[in-house]
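Project standup — Tuesday

K.O.: blocked on the structure for the chain from last sprint. Re-posting the sequence here as requested.
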Amino acid sequence: MTRALPGVYVVSVVTADRQIVLVVDDSDDMRALLTMALRGAGYAVAQAAGGHEALGYLRSEVAPALIVLDLRMPVMDGWGFLAARAEYEDLSDIPVLIYSAEGDIDQTRMLPPLAGFISKTMPITQVVAEVHRICTARPTSLAL
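H.V.: unblocked you, prediction finished:
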């Protein structure tokens, strides 16, 4: 695991045949679980511990095919991240999968392109299946 930026870890080698998924969650354990499962499914994974770190990654690294985003995080939560990301035209088209323990999501706060919502109570295999569905449903540029 290498540290790309403060709070951002790139945990797999990016090659031309692997899509990048950016996992944004303040829980080290949750990021590790998602990373292990997604790497096992063939994805390259970058991690960010919060919204600010995720924005830093997006502004300086290869754009991911998908962002998996927790909503409840300190400093800049998922809602703040979505609002800040929307200010950058070149970042606003990256789909986001909300992965949260929050059950009652205010749909009016969702900023496109929101690819979906999945509860943290779902089995990790369903999360990987949803990531795969989203990443194969739309054409994406692969990492160089």
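K.O.: great, moving the ticket to review. Strands lie at 2-5, 8-10, 20-24, 44-48, 66-69, 96-100, 114-119. The CA atoms of residues 58 and 91 lie 7 Å apart.
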